[in-house]
Amino acid sequence: MHKGEKRLPGDLGFGLILGCLTSVIIFVGLSWLLWQIPFPFKMGNYLDHLLGWLSMEINSLIPLIFKDRGHGYLFYLAQLRDPVQPWMLVSRFYVALAAAGLFGILVGYIGSRGQLTERHIAGRQLHEGQAALRFMARRAKILAEASEPGLRLHPSFNWQLSIDRETRHTLVWGSPGGGKTQILIPWIRAARARGDKLIIFDNKGDFTSWLPDPFILVAPWDSRSVVWDVAKDCRNQQDARELAARLIADGHDPLWHMSARQILTAVIIRLQREQPGVWTWASLYSKACGSQDELMQTVKLYMPEARHLFESPGKTTQSVLINLGSNLSMVGTLAAAWGAAEPKKMFSFSNWLMTESPKRRTIVLQGSGRYIELARAYLQSVLTLVSSRINSPQFPDSNKRRLWFFLDEFPQLGLIKDFSPLLEIGRSKGVRVVIGAQDTEQIKNLYGEHTADSWTSMVGTQIVVRVNPGSTANILAKEIIGTRTVDRVIVHKGKVEPPQREYPLVIEPAQLGEDLGPTKNGVRALVLGFNDVAMLDWPFSEIPKLRPSSVPASWLLNSNNSERPSSENQDPRGKIDEPQVKNLKPHLKLRLASSSELSKMAATGTTLNIAAEDLSDFSDTAKGGTHEPR
Asked: Taking the CA of residue 126 as centre, how many other CA atoms within 13 Å lie in the half-sphere pointing to its CB?
């Protein structure tokens, strides 16, 4: 159970005496029982035969002793005639002697071993090797009795998760190169083989390259990607607010980004009313880049609570519009990527969620280290949408639904609004979430310490691969895995002292970096959540490269990537007469900055967005004018 168990010095003499005594008792008892077998008929005079056989065997080894009795018994055996043969008698003693010898050696070895220096009293224990597999098999069998057998985390394991344990979600901790992907690959394969629905976050394109068809790829920068049918998924006013919040990032002063979000929300609501179910990213970009008068009319009609932004046009209004304009680049990029597409490439996440058995049951949401802001904007929008749909009453409880979220490198997604309810409520709706993260601090920085702590207590299973020394290793070893209670015995000056109660860690923080992670044949990891801790080896899974991880989309290969889709490219559904959006720029009425302000901006490297916030308190000397952003 524990490698390197320490013992006190043993007593060889005691073990020898105990082994011999055990052998004698077993030999006499077993030979007597064998003598009672009526073969070929009932035997008598057991003691005479025992003494005669012993004398014969001893005399054969030491001829000078037991000479008369030994020879006499040998002569007796030679005179036996059918149906009694000599072997029918002596074989009983030989069998008893062999068994007694084996048991005697075993008992003698155990007796000669010294006392363990520590005795487990309470708390978790660490199981390793075959003992860990046996422990997991026992625990999984017990848990499956209250539920149903679920997935096998690796084909080589002799145990399965229960269905109930699947819906209690999983956290996988590990540093880069620690082996998280090798933990997830057989899991994903098992879920797909069972016919479950999966949403996979592919941060580096690894899953895209090896995942067998069919699956749905979502990546604005990839030519193989579907096109997000945003009109099908953004249907009401609250959806519009959520989408605007994902597309316009938080700034230093909430006044500016909240006001810009109100304007963009009004634009989205206008599209929902005027072009229900058929508007595109291109139409959103076109409307959002309208003139100040057009935006004012849109806000007054569809977001009247924000009309004060335009009631007294002036410096504050201009700053809000600057903030909006500086954030529309992301919408423009999505318009270039997903502005127009064939109907067969359009994809609705809402429809996929509500369809019980879609043709393609796996969605891959691809990330990008090159297009970080674009990736984060669309990923947060998609996952916020999906989470809100699942948490809504329109997505009923079900014990038959099996929907997985495999979110490796989860912190790279940024803050996902309403993600906690997905863990809390999703269980009753058949949702299973597997989160992979490098350390606890990443999650705490995004969601707060309280939320991060609640997740670790809420999640049913945690898997730990190699974790580098630091705060995460300390938290895992000291707070999540914890301590155990033992009685420890020590020898002082040759005398065994009374046991002392101690509370050591189940596993030291340093072991999380030294004992776990990739080995010669697989990945070694800890499995938590089954009372004790199991250290298991995941054999390596073969990862074939079936396709490139990324194929650049045509809009990225255009020499003039600043161009946006225009109305010359008619909407494939033939329902929208899109306004011209090619080379469209926001028409904002800006003021001229003073020389001192320009000097300050040049010295600090202030961006347009930050400049709008910093210059919210306009000087009296500023002069208004209409200027196109350069």
From this structure: 21
Are the C-beta atoms of 171 and 464 separated by less than 8 Å?
Answer: no
DSSP assignment string, 383-447: HHHHHHHHTSTTS---SS--EEEEETTGGGG---TTHHHHHHHGGGGTEEEEEEES-HHHHHHHH
Q: How many residues belong to the chain?
A: 630
CA nearest 509: which of 483, 546, 537, 487?
483
Q: What is the DSSP letter of 344?
A: G
How many angstroms separate the CA atoms of 1 and 407, rounded? 33
Burial of 130 per CB tally in 10 Å (0-12, 13-18, 19+): exposed
Are 466 and 534 a contacting pair, CB within 8 Å? no
State the pLDDT at residue 557.
84
DSSP letter, residue 277: T
What is the CB neighbour count within 10 angstroms for residue 345?
13
Q: Residue 173: helix, strand or coil by DSSP?
A: strand
C-alpha atoms less than 13 angstroms from C-alpha of 177 in its C-beta half-sphere: 3
- Distance CA(580)–CA(524), nearest Å, equals 58
Angstrom distance (rounded) from CA 170 to CA 434 = 5
pLDDT for the residue 251: 78
As a whole number of Å, the CA-based R_g of the chain is 38
Q: Spell out the alpha helix ranges (H) of 249-393.
A: 254-274, 281-288, 292-302, 308-311, 315-338, 349-354, 372-390
- What is the reported pTM? 0.75
Instruction: Taking the CA atoms of 172, 355, 396 and 243 in sequence, report the sign of the dihedral they define.
Output: positive
User: Residue 583 above 80 pLDDT?
Assistant: no
| Fold exhibited by the domain 127-228+348-539 | Rossmann fold (3.40.50)
pLDDT confidence of 312, banded at 50, 70, 90?
low
Tens digit of each residue's pLDDT (9 = 90 or more) over 169-192: 999 999 999 999 999 999 999 999
Whole-number Å distance between alpha carbons of 221 and 157? 39
**Helix H or strand E segment including 552:** none
Using left for φ > 0, alpha for ψ between -120 and 50, and beta otherwise, residue 549 falls in: alpha
Q: How does residue 493 score in pLDDT terms, banded at 50, 70 and 90?
A: low
Give yes or no for residue 26 having a pLDDT over 90.
Answer: yes
Strand 362-366 with 216-218, pairing = parallel
Q: Are strands 461-464 and 403-407 parallel, antiparallel or unpaired?
A: unpaired
> What's the Cα-to-Cα distance from 337 to each of 62, 296, 493, 520, 561, rounded to whole Å?
98, 28, 79, 44, 10
Question: Between β-strands 532-539 and 126-128, what pairing exists: parallel, antiparallel or unpaired?
Answer: parallel
For residue 357, the SS3 value is: coil
Q: How confident is the model at residue 606 (pLDDT cuts 50, 70, 90)?
A: very low
- Residue 119's nearest CA partner among 1, 203, 229 is 1
Give Cβ neighbours of residue 382 (< 8 Å, ≥ 6 apart): 218, 228, 349, 365
230-255 pLDDT, tens digit per residue, is: 999 999 999 999 999 888 888 788 88
| Segments making up each domain of the chain, as ranges | 12-116, 127-228+348-539, 232-340+550-579+589-626
